[in-house]
Amino acid sequence: MAVTILKAVVVLIIGFVLLVKGADFFVEGASSVAKMLKVPSLIIGMTIVAMGTSLPETSVSIAASMNNQNTLAVSNVVGSNIFNLMVVLGICAVISKLQVSRDVLKRDYPFSVLCAILLLVCGCIGMELGRIDGIAFLVIFVGFIVVLIKSAMDARKRGEISEKEREMNEEMSEMKEQPVWKSIIYIVGGAIAIKYGGDWVVDSASTIATSFGISATLVGLTICSVGTSLPELVTSIVAARKNELDMAVGNVVGSNVFNILMVLGVAATISPITFLMENVIDIIVLLVFSLITWVFCITKKEIGKKEGIIMLVLYAIYLVYICLR
């Protein structure tokens, strides 16, 4: 038993490393190819680069869905969104005040709440996220990307640079064009790492859950969600120490929208996802936490240290609850 668990933990860690590094390589290779094809940096930034942070969640949820571990697929996404919202933003707010842009408050944040409500409604109807639901999620996701691009282009015409474009320009400036052969190796190698990383995370997480007699939902909400959200956490903490956190809230909100619409949309389109009552409760918790954070943002147009501590305490209470239920 002990050997089996130790092996599962080692495989889990390797799986997370493959997911994170695979996503980095895939995004770098794909962005380089897109640049060579003269695709505008704005389009690359808001599609390939922006979706890159959700690749680990995508891989884990698709692998879980295909292996009939549907509850793991849902709990991984919901758990990641709760972790991003309460822990990533909470820690950053404790380190340095988080400013919230007008676009995030008026457009992106309300839309992320609507996405969570949509997931709750679809999940409650028949307790399943079917293929039609998945396709609808993907269509809405494409619409969201189009709106972001149009908004950025309109701002550019007015002689302004939107928050989202400024963020993407910073990320794109760090990427260098590479030879075609190297880009292809990055894309193929990254895709393979993401695929196997997702499989290994799901398999080892399931083994750990079985060995300790705990539910796949709990594993998805804790181990898997934290593991796939580590890149966002590390990046945000580094940015907080450098006092470069004016886009942190927008990053988390965007990531949460991608996780619901793209990740679950792809997973459900491949294989319908069955919901448990626990999944419904967790989505309601996500909604409540989203509204609390939204109130923090609206009242002061920023999230300060006090609010950050409250968010971390709420997450700790939630962790105790899911472990005891």
From TrEMBL:
Record-linked NCBIfam families: calcium/sodium antiporter
Family matches, as Gene3D superfamilies: NCX, central ion-binding region
Record bears the keyword Transmembrane helix: yes
Sequence ranges assigned to domain Sodium/calcium exchanger membrane region in this UniProt record: 8-149, 183-322
Listed name of the protein: Calcium/sodium antiporter
Main location as per UniProt: membrane
Subcellular location: Membrane
Membrane topology annotation: Multi-pass membrane protein
Transmembrane segments: 6-27, 39-56, 76-96, 108-129, 135-153, 204-227, 248-270, 276-296, 308-324
Keywords, ordered alphabetically: Membrane, Transmembrane, Transmembrane helix
